[in-house]
Amino acid sequence: MTGTSASAGPAGPAGSGSLTAPTSWATGVVREVRHHAGGAVVLRLAVDGMGPRLPGQHVVVRLRADDGYTASRSYSVASDPADPLVELYVERLVDGEVSGYLGDVVEVGDELEVRGPVGGWFVWDGVRPALAVGGGSGVVPLVSMLRHAGSTGHPDRVCLVAAARTLERLPYADELVGGCQVVALSQERSPAGREPGRLVAADLEPLLRTGQQVFVCGSSAFAEHASRLVVDLGVPAADVRVERFGPSG
């Protein structure tokens, strides 16, 4: 995810099921760097001493200048909790203080300050069936859920609906095929033949199941739109968890 995250649920006590958030910083060594369209970059880090993770959590990355100035941003984790490396998808923003450095400067072998995993609200337990709905880079924490479902032998427990303008700008597009995955592109036909257009109820309704938990992640506008769609389709508000974010560089 790009920028500082904010989690909220349409109903239910905020922070219910919260986990203990680490307060100390650890050293993350960059093991892989993969550049993507639009300046986005995938970083895979080996973080010394990081505890167990859950799908949906994020970490905080802090940069430190020689004069002691620091800047930090939160990024959702895309990797499966069973993956020993922490994978981050960083969308580079114009004049982005942290994203620009991570996207343009960081190389394999560099060290970053990392704190986490953080977050106990927007997490999937790996057991309850889930519908995950993400817009743009909002799919990143949902990819962690999808990967976890696959690695535990239950790929049908998560259906991921991803919305973006074009396939090129959709993170992890190559993993969002097959099964019950849906790609909704607003400016071009999707690989499965869906006509261009905004995410609508018809994209979600066939995937709804009794007892399902729904996760929605994206910009404030997308999160409001998508969460309204699922609630209007009859999903109890208490079963919908929403994470919103905005650009912060």
Key attributes of the depicted protein:
249 residues, six-stranded antiparallel β-sheet, 31% strand, disordered N terminus
Sum this structure up briefly.
This protein is of the alpha/beta class and 249 residues long. It contains four helices and twelve strands; from the N terminus they run ββββββαββαββαβαβ. 43% of the residues are buried.
Helix content: 10-25%
Topology pattern, helix = H, strand = E: EEEEEEHEEHEEHEHE
Round the mean pLDDT to the nearest integer and report it: 90
SS strand fraction: 25-35%
Number of strands: 12
Would you tell me the structural class of the helices and strands? alpha/beta
- Give the C-alpha Rg: 17 Å
Largest sheet: 6 strands, mixed
> Numbering strands along the chain, what is their spatial order in the largest sheet?
1-12-11-8-9-10
Characterization of the model:
There is one protein chain. With 249 residues, the chain is an alpha/beta fold. The protein contains four helices and twelve strands. The chain has helices at 97-104, 140-151, 201-204, 220-232; strands spanning 5-8, 26-35, 41-47, 58-64, 70-76, 86-90, 111-118, 130-135, 158-164, 182-185, 213-219, 240-245. The protein has a six-stranded mixed β-sheet, with helices on both faces. A six-stranded antiparallel β-sheet has the order 5-4-7-2-3-6. The protein is globular, with a radius of gyration of 17 Å. The protein starts with a strand and ends with a strand. Mean pLDDT is 90; it is low at 1-19. InterPro entries: Cbr1-like_FAD-bd_dom, FAD-bd_FR_type, FNR_nucleotide-bd, MRET, OxRdtase_FAD/NAD-bd, Riboflavin_synthase-like_b-brl. Residues 1-22 are annotated as: Disordered. This is FAD-binding oxidoreductase. Keywords: 2Fe-2S, Iron, Iron-sulfur, Metal-binding. Residues 23-124 form the FAD-binding FR-type domain.
